[in-house]
Design a protein that fits this description.
Strand content of chain B: 5-15%
Structural class of chain B: alpha/beta
Largest sheet of chain A: 6 strands, mixed
CATH architecture of the largest domain in chain B: 3-Layer(aba) Sandwich
Radius of gyration of chain B: 33 Å
CATH topology of the largest domain in chain B: Rossmann fold
Strand order of the largest sheet of chain B: 10-11-12-7-13-14
Mean pLDDT of chain B: 87
Shape of chain B: elongated
Number of domains of chain A: 2
Low-confidence stretches of chain A: 483-488
Shape of chain A: elongated
Number of helices of chain B: 18
Strand content of chain A: 5-15%
Oligomer: heterodimer
Chain lengths: ~500, ~500
């Protein structure tokens, strides 16, 4: 039995490694803010949602599979949360009642297994009841398959059989063990046998062969212990089987919890954004090898979450573009925009909604960020050296159809050298089919690309209103030679007036 | 059938085969360590008495050389080892059987012991039959054991063993435990309940899970409850267990004495070769020496101290090898030179080589000719004790006198640094006196000394010197070479090291 809510045909693998550039992505895109909003302080949710966000999908169909499941969740949040409560309750019960499979004797192990099994059976019945009541309210392929499976596998007959076995394993008729003679005529192959219900031939056979009986005197302590040892040998296998069965159900519930955790995180985020009046929409993913980037009202979800209010979004169309170069005013929203591009990409590719009125982009095979960093505190390497080292690490991992977000990269040296390094890197990436978003103050760099009049490049600029105010909106425009540092200077040094 | 022993050809009395205590010179030559190490993994065979018993007959030595050489073949050695492994089991099981309380249990283990014994014999016969044997010892043994294995007695033993095992393997029974009541009956085809339970919950399986089966104590042994069950099982299958009782009574003395003795004695070779294996792996060479009772022209190429080598190999350190030879009238090797330069090691090597050769064993070296001595004497300095100077000197002289009165021209004597704690004049005087007596006896001797004069006392003495690295005199080569003794070069090299030569001193004073 599989939940299959994250993929139509496979489990969500919580053990899969995060991409090697996880730390850079987390830092540069402020992923903690997003993940905290999704997790609401729940470590488990944080963990699963982080995995999902950073190990996205590469196929529009699999993205749509999750989008549809998520749409069902947005429509039936309380039912989904009720189902999610089942595996959580299972974990809570285990803790609360000290349930465990860690006895040192088979008898103890069997007791633990049975106890846990009874608890699981109660929860599974509840899951079955939810399926019976609400299955009709779900439309997605994922949920419909899931409910159908529950109804088929966990029918009344099945629960009756399970009850029978749980009763039989109390061994009211004694423990029946078969054995053979090993070396030294010592018993081997102790095997627990099913009591009674023999067929006719077996019963006739039984009459021909005698049965010998003996009793252990209650005062014979050693004999009592020896008998107990034999009994333990007899039930060792079934105790292990019960423990494993308990593990199976436990793992099934854990899997269910993992597969739902992603959607619960999405629900949490959705509720917060709608409360602030921010819009979300389900994005349109386009195949890897196409070049699409069209959006309206795209906002930086992390900034919104931090400010706890609705913020300005950007519209844009970079369809058929490989290079998006962003220049313009300081504190004009360039970094925010760049982050919103990265976040939207990750969210789209893991099957989430995007923070935009509409968003359509091609899938990328890997997302990389290269941001200006603080001076290396250990003084081990110079700043440019450090930047190039990071760049080299990216190049180790990058593949065609990836996307790189540069933020003020290679500005650590003088403009001409920095521009030249950046130019050569950018050209190489473009030639390898890698999409580049580049925020820069390097006029030489931006200008040289602009002068080429490439079909596959677009230039955006942070807007500067007359009088120095900023709208935090970007519009299409060629690079300018100044970045309005003067404005900033004035703002800082005259604010006291 | 004239096979007696794999260690001795023909009849040799028990007292001549084994010596209970170790020879007096063992500690001085570090042979105690060597024999300890050789026999370490072979305690249950009690091999030391064999290693304490040197041979005095060249042919007896050749008898062992032949067997030892043959056993260097890995296939043959494998056959002997697997035979030995099975015999170990036989002995352990028989030891167990003698201690067991319950008849059916005891007889069950007895059956196992015989099974292992039959396998040991049968497979050894089979493997020996295809071996190309040349040694007198193994040829005679093969003849013996082949005859034994084909005897009617052994065939019957084998057949009855198999029959009983097969019968017991058909037994299958059930017992039901309810509170303190146990019911025993035959197995009647009941299904495996664990499998059924597993099937019920299989559908939840997400992946592999841990095996919870608890490791229950599984010692061989039987308590009275198991014994009671077994007794009832015996009643369920009366013919099978009656057969077993008869079998046990009939074959209580199944073990053949000659084979039992062979199993022990062959381990002398196995243990020795196993010890050499590690040393050979480190690149050291061993050879079967020529042995003579009359010819005192001995030599060894690339010899080494086998005790020291054992230690150095485990530390992965290099081992220095040394040559020696004595020609014509030469009998006495006088070893001098720097301390810690390998002189004592060299002296020990000489003694070890001769002793190991007398056991019929291969010895350290590429090629060797050695003398078959009647006795070995060693005189090594005991702990220095300044308070007891006079007493010690006197004691030394008494011991040396004892040695010289017992020694014959066929003895070997190893003298190591005697008279170091007396005055030089006394030492020279006493050294010369003793040397003269050794020369007179015409014995083979290694004489380690700091007294250079002893090296050139007669045409029977030769001089060998421990050496240093010329560029850095503080470094020892541990090479002992045949050359005249010259204490001078060494003294100067030490002086250079401390910059106390003429030039060195002048320089230091000027600066």
């Amino acid at each position: 039995m599989k939940a299959f809510l994250m993929y139509p045909d496979q489990d969500f693998d919580l053990q899969q490694p995060l991409p090697a550039n996880e730390q850079a992505l987390t830092q540069d895109l402020e992923l903690n803010t997003l993940l905290n909003a999704m997790a609401r302080g729940d470590k488990f949710l944080y963990n699963v949602d982080q995995k999902a966000l950073l190990t996205g999908l590469y196929n529009p169909d699999s993205i749509r599979y999750r989008q549809n499941v998520l749409k069902d969740c947005l429509k039936n949040p309380s039912i989904v949360r009720e189902i999610y409560q089942i595996p959580i309750e299972s974990q809570d019960n285990k803790q609360k009642f000290w349930m465990g499979l860690y006895s040192s004797t088979p008898g103890g192990l069997l007791y633990g297994g049975l106890e846990m099994m009874r608890m699981f059976v109660g929860l599974l019945k509840r899951l079955k009841n939810i399926a019976d009541e609400h299955a009709g309210e779900f439309e997605s392929e994922g949920f419909r398959r899931f409910f159908a499976m529950i109804q088929k596998e966990l029918d009344d007959e099945y629960f009756a059989i399970v009850q029978d076995h749980l009763k039989e394993l109390r061994f009211n008729r004694g423990v029946l063990i078969s054995a053979e003679l090993g070396k030294g005529n010592e018993g081997i192959h102790y095997t627990l046998r099913k009591q009674g219900k023999q067929n006719l031939r077996q019963r006739i056979e039984a009459l021909k062969s005698p049965t010998y009986t003996f009793y252990i005197d209650p005062r014979d302590i050693g004999g009592g212990r020896a008998l107990e040892e034999l009994r333990e040998k007899g039930i060792n296998q079934v105790a292990s089987v019960m423990a494993q069965s308990a593990d199976h159900i436990d793992n099934f519930l854990k899997m269910l919890r993992i597969e739902l955790a992603f959607y619960i995180g999405c629900l949490n985020l959705y509720e917060q954004l709608t409360q602030m009046g921010e819009a979300v929409s389900f994005p349109q993913p386009v195949a890897l090898d196409e070049r699409r980037h069209a959006f309206q009202g795209l906002y930086d979800v992390c900034l919104a979450l931090t400010m706890k209010q609705k913020i300005v979004g950007n519209d844009g169309n970079a369809d058929n573009k490989d290079l998006v170069m962003i220049t313009g005013a300081n504190q004009g929203g360039k970094s925010t925009f760049l982050r919103s591009i990265g976040l939207a990409q990750l969210m789209m590719q893991c099957g989430m909604f995007t923070p935009a009125d509409s968003f359509c982009a091609n899938i990328c095979s890997g997302l990389f960020t290269h941001y200006k960093r603080k001076e290396d505190p250990t003084m081990k390497s110079g700043k440019l050296d450090e930047e190039l080292k990071r760049m080299s690490e990216i190049v180790d991992q990058i593949t065609p159809n990836s996307m790189v977000l540069f933020n003020e990269s290679f500005a650590a040296t003088n403009e001409r050298e920095g521009s030249e390094i950046a130019r050569q890197i950018t050209h190489a990436l473009l030639d390898e089919g890698i999409k580049v978003f580049y925020v820069t103050h390097l006029y030489d760099l931006a200008h040289s690309f602009h002068a080429k009049k490439m079909d596959n490049a677009i230039f955006l600029r942070a807007e500067r209103k007359a009088g120095g105010g900023r709208s935090y909106k970007l519009f299409e425009g060629e690079p300018l030679q100044t970045s309005y540092g003067e404005d900033l200077y004035h703002k800082v040094f005259t604010s006291g007036d | 059938m004239n096979f007696q022993s794999i260690l001795f050809e023909g009849y040799v009395g028990l007292t001549e085969r084994e010596t209970p205590g170790e020879p007096a010179f063992f500690v001085d030559l570090n042979l105690d360590q060597v024999i300890d190490s050789i026999t370490a993994g072979f305690k249950e065979y009690n091999l030391k008495p064999f290693f304490y018993t040197p041979l005095h007959d060249v042919d007896a030595i050749l008898y062992r050389h032949e067997v030892m050489q043959e056993l260097e073949d890995a296939t043959l050695m494998g056959s002997i080892r697997s035979f030995a492994d099975k015999m170990v089991i036989v002995r352990r099981l028989l030891g167990l059987v003698s201690k067991l309380d319950f008849q059916n249990h005891r007889e069950g283990w007895f059956l196992e012991a015989v099974t292992s014994y039959c396998e040991a014999v049968v497979s050894l016969v089979q493997e020996l039959s295809s071996a190309h044997l040349k040694s007198r010892g193994l040829l005679a043994f093969r003849e013996y054991i082949t005859f034994y294995a084909n005897s009617e007695n052994f065939s019957l033993l084998q057949m009855d063993t198999k029959k009983n095992k097969a019968a017991l393997a058909t037994v299958k029974y059930c017992f039901n435990i309810k509170h303190s009541t146990v019911k025993v009956r035959k197995y009647e085809g009941e299904t495996d309940y664990s499998v059924e339970v597993a099937g019920i919950f299989e559908k939840f399986k997400q992946g592999a899970v841990k095996d919870y089966k608890i490791k229950l104590y599984e010692g061989s042994g039987m308590n009275h409850v198991e014994a009671q069950i077994l007794d009832f099982v015996a009643e369920l299958y009366p013919e099978i267990f009656t057969g077993l009782h008869h079998y046990y009574a009939q074959y209580s003395h199944f073990l053949d004495e000659t084979i039992r003795v062979f199993d022990r004695e062959i381990q002398f070779y196995v243990a020795y070769l196993k010890h050499l294996e590690r040393l050979k792996h480190a690149g050291l060479k061993f050879c079967y020496p020529q042995i003579s009772r009359t010819d005192k022209e001995v030599f060894d190429e690339d010899g080494f101290d086998i005790a020291l080598a054992g230690k150095l190999v485990s530390e992965d350190s290099p081992i220095v090898r040394n040559d020696f030879y004595l020609k014509d009238q030469e009998r006495i090797i006088v070893v001098s030179g720097p301390n810690q330069g390998g002189k004592t090691t060299f002296a020990r090597t000489f003694g070890q080589l001769h002793y190991l050769a007398s056991l019929g064993c291969p010895v350290p070296g590429k090629k060797a000719r050695l003398f078959l001595f009647d006795r070995i004497f060693t005189h090594f300095e005991k702990e220095e004790n300044i308070k007891n100077l006079r007493g010690k000197l006197q004691d030394d002289l008494v011991r040396i006198n004892d040695i010289l009165t017992q020694a014959t021209p066929n003895s070997i004597i190893i003298m190591n640094e005697i008279f170091t704690s007396t005055t030089l004049n006394d030492a020279v005087f006493l050294g010369k006196k003793i040397m003269e007596r050794i020369i007179q006896l015409d014995m083979l001797c290694v004489f380690v000394t700091f007294i250079d004069e002893l090296a050139s006392l007669s045409e029977k003495t030769i001089s060998m010197v421990s050496t240093v690295v010329p560029e850095n005199p503080a470094l020892r080569t541990f090479k002992i070479v045949r050359k005249p003794a010259d204490g001078l070069a060494y003294a100067i090299s030490i002086a250079e090291k401390y910059r106390l030569t003429y030039d060195g001193l002048k320089e230091r004073i000027h600066s």
